[in-house]
Structures are given as structure tokens and as C-alpha cells.
Design brief:
Blueprint lengths: L1 E9 L1 H18 L5 E7 L3 H10 L5 E7 L13 E3 L9 E9 L3 H11 L5 E9 L12 E5 L5 E2 L15 E7 L1
Parallel strand pairs: 2-3, 2-5, 5-6, 6-7
Antiparallel strand pairs: 1-9, 3-4, 8-9
Helix pairs in contact: 1-2
This protein binds inosinic acid and magnesium ion.
Length: 175
């Protein structure tokens, strides 16, 4: 099986404009609040690092690592591989995710975070594939809606590869 880039979907310039717009929206919404950004590892680390540098307000940053439901047909318990190290009661929490796909992982993860009683809980996804949704989850802040194609780059991987591309591209698999 060989992998190759079929098409650039979002260039570096387009990504920068999207992240800038999100940072401004988030800045307006959370002005005066104690904002905690929770990045979902690993895919969100590039997006999150750009986002915080464009954010016009102060924030704190934590990371959560969970197993994905990608290869399972049924839900079940969420496997938290790395949990948050601090209590959330004092914070307005914004989960930062690379892509919203079936919604399975995110809906379980939001339930998990809600049990920690944050002041508020919201979701920011750089990419959204609404056509793929199996569980009703919507992001409060969406970078861009994309068609149902498998994408890599800007933190997103295929089998741990391609995360370091500075743009988002569609991946092609060939025998
Ligand atoms: P879901 O919304 O629970 O199906 O899972 C979302 C997770 O699946 C994301 O956080 C990504 O890690 C991964 N994922 C979904 N679609 C893609 C894609 O097109 N490229 C790379 N990873 C993806
Ligand atoms: Mg992810």
C-alpha cells in the first residue's frame, strides 16, 4: 500500500486565516473569564499551539489523551489514557480538537469532562465532517466544514504519519 497526497484542501494561508478568526471569536466569548483550553492529543497539538499565540486573552492549557472509537462499531466506556491533572470547578473549559467526525469520541469525552463540574464546557473543532456524524455532537466554534474525505497534516495523521505537513491534504491510498 502506498500513500500519497491527492490534493491540498487547506493551504497554510487558509489555515492561518481560519485560526485567526477562531481566536478572535474565542477571545470575545471568554473575555474576563478563567479560560482553560484542553487540547486532545495527539491530533490537536499543532492547531492548539497556533491558536493560543493568536488568542487576545490569557488562558491556561492542559491536554487529554483518550482512545478513539474509530475501529469499534459500538460505543462503550471511554478509555482515558492521560487525564487532566487539575480540578475544573474554577474554569471555563474549551475542548480543542482537530476534527469532528462520527462524534463518538467527543461525545464520550465531553461527558467525562462534565463529571468534573467545570463552570462551563464548550468545544472548538478546526475541521468538521458533518456528513459522517453518528452521535449528535456539535462544536461551539468550527474552523471549517469539509466533505467526507480522509485528511492529514497540520497535526492530523494516518497511522501516525503526515502530522508535520504545514497544510491539510486529502490522502490517497493505492496498492
Ligand atoms: P470521532 O468524531 O469520534 O469519529 O473521532 C474523531 C477522531 O478521529 C479525530 O479526533 C481524529 O483523531 C480521527 N479522525 C477522524 N477523521 C479523520 C481524518 O480525516 N483524518 C485523520 N484523523 C481523523
Ligand atoms: Mg483527535
Amino acid at each position: 500500500m502506498t500513500e500519497s497526497i491527492a490534493q491540498v484542501l487547506l493551504s497554510e494561508e487558509e489555515l492561518q486565516a481560519i485560526v485567526r478568526r477562531l481566536a478572535e471569536e474565542i477571545g470575545r466569548t471568554y473575555a474576563g473569564k478563567r479560560l482553560l483550553l484542553v487540547g486532545i492529543l495527539k491530533g490537536a497539538f499543532v492547531f492548539l499551539s497556533d491558536l493560543i499565540r493568536l488568542l487576545p486573552i490569557p488562558c491556561e492549557v492542559e491536554f487529554l489523551r483518550v482512545s478513539s472509537y474509530r475501529n469499534s462499531t459500538e460505543g462503550g466506556e471511554l478509555e482515558v489514557l492521560q487525564d487532566l491533572a487539575l480540578p475544573l470547578e474554577e474554569y471555563d473549559v474549551l475542548v480543542v480538537e482537530d476534527i469532528l467526525d462520527s462524534g463518538r469520541t467527543l461525545s464520550a469525552m465531553l461527558k467525562h469532562l462534565q463529571t468534573k463540574n467545570p463552570r462551563s464546557l464548550a468545544l472548538c473543532a478546526l475541521l468538521d465532517k458533518p456528513a459522517r456524524r453518528q452521535v449528535p455532537v456539535e462544536a461551539d466554534f468550527v474552523g471549517v466544514r469539509i466533505p467526507d474525505a480522509f485528511v492529514v497534516g497540520y497535526g492530523l495523521d494516518y497511522a501516525q504519519r503526515w502530522r508535520s505537513l504545514p497544510y491539510v491534504a486529502c490522502l490517497e491510498l493505492r496498492d
